[in-house]
Amino acid sequence: MERTKRHYKNLIIGFGKGGKTLASFLASQKEPVAIVEQSNKMYGGTCINIACIPTKSLIVNAEKGVPYNEALTIKDKLTSSLRQKNYDKLNQQDTADVITGKASFVSSNEIKVVFLSGEEIFITADRIFINTGAEPRIPKIAGIDSKKIFTSTSIMEQQQKPEKLIIVGGGFIGLEFADMFTKFGSKVTILDVADEFLPKEDGDVRAAIYQVLTDKGIDIINGIQLQQIEDINDNTIKVHFNHEGNNRTIDANAVLLATGRNPNTEGLNLQAAGIKTNERGYIIVNEELKTNIPNIWAIGDINGGPQFTYISLDDFRIIKNQLTNHKYTSIKQRGDFPSCVFITPPLAQAGLREKEAIEQGYRIKVATLPANAIPKAAILKETRGVLKAIIDTDTNKILGCTLFCAEAHEIINIIQLAIKHEIPYTAMRDTIYTHPTMTEALNDLFQNVPD
Fold this sequence. Notes:
Blueprint: E1 5-13, H1 17-28, E2 33-37, H2 46-50, H3 52-63, H4 68-91, E3 96-100, E4 102-107, E5 110-114, E6 120-130, E7 134-136, E8 149-150, E9 164-168, H5 172-183, E10 187-192, H6 203-215, E11 219-222, E12 224-233, E13 236-243, E14 246-252, E15 254-257, E16 261-263, H7 270-273, E17 296-298, H8 309-323, E18 339-341, E19 347-351, H9 354-359, E20 364-370, H10 375-380, E21 386-392, E22 398-404, H11 408-420, H12 425-430, H13 441-447
Parallel strand pairs: 1-2, 1-6, 2-3, 6-17, 8-15, 9-10, 9-15, 10-11
Antiparallel strand pairs: 4-5, 5-6, 7-16, 12-13, 13-14, 18-19, 19-22, 20-21, 21-22
Helix pairs in contact: 1-8, 3-4, 3-5
């Protein structure tokens, strides 16, 4: 039987943030582009469908006191709408085709696409961009195949919230889900292998976050060794672990695994194209996001970089500039970027933490401000938390800032701009901000920098 063949100038595997934005740009330039996505539930990528957007929707509605089932309905309508908009925006462009099927490499410039029907087509392309993202990591322990064990993806599909939830993993994903399910009324326990709670954070910030979460009733147990998970009955699951030399067990209705993510390369047959991966399975790229094969790039989570939607978007910018002969063409030009954990209040970070600045040899000054000193925090009825800034003593430049307070996720972007453009802390201290806002707290925070 003769093979069905197509050829495109550009082929993108995976409908994630970086890939879809690149596809839209290429189509706007009238370049033929195909984007292959294996699931019609993933148009738009991880963020829209199973991560940033649905989790933040649930968090916001939990804070508003919306019942769990109603919040799920709101979340599903939102993601469905965004998914359709993403599909339509791309598929309606004249030179773009969205192809729904499973892609695998045949050679360095050809892939096979298998549709749900079993039909196959073969696509060749001048340029190929891999944008398949990452997926939750599942630890290998006894009992891991229980139907009461969930990932960050599958737990958001459950129609009933667990009355008792164990979260394995105390990183950012685990904390967001712990905080969210607590708001919905679940009793949450976090089990984490790390000896310390949030070990990367400064001690004072870590203590403030720990206090807020435990005051909400979240149990946090660090330094555990997971042993096995045991189904007891239709409604109960038991987690066996070792803590400080003692064997312990905790019962729950569900277990959420928040133990990291793995590259989504299964079935891609990367070896057929000669594409190299690292020891963790992520595709190896150079500074320009190019693989070891000249016509193939890897964009977004799959290349082993920071796993944030905004980094995937920046990957797009880097590749776009290579294709259009502009200057911003390397991850070395990226610089620092902010991050945020959407617990309540949110935790946002830009630049260096205090201990990191000291380790790097800076002479520093440290300013802190309790969140309860901010008038807008009182208005919002969210006075928990602390703001902290790290200043270079020799230059007055802002080295870093940690915000654990209401609206930290918004304020941190201003701080990041100040760091990037080397604005001295005195400018932030003396700027006139609108009132009453959380941003005006920067007046007081930077006023507290020691002489």
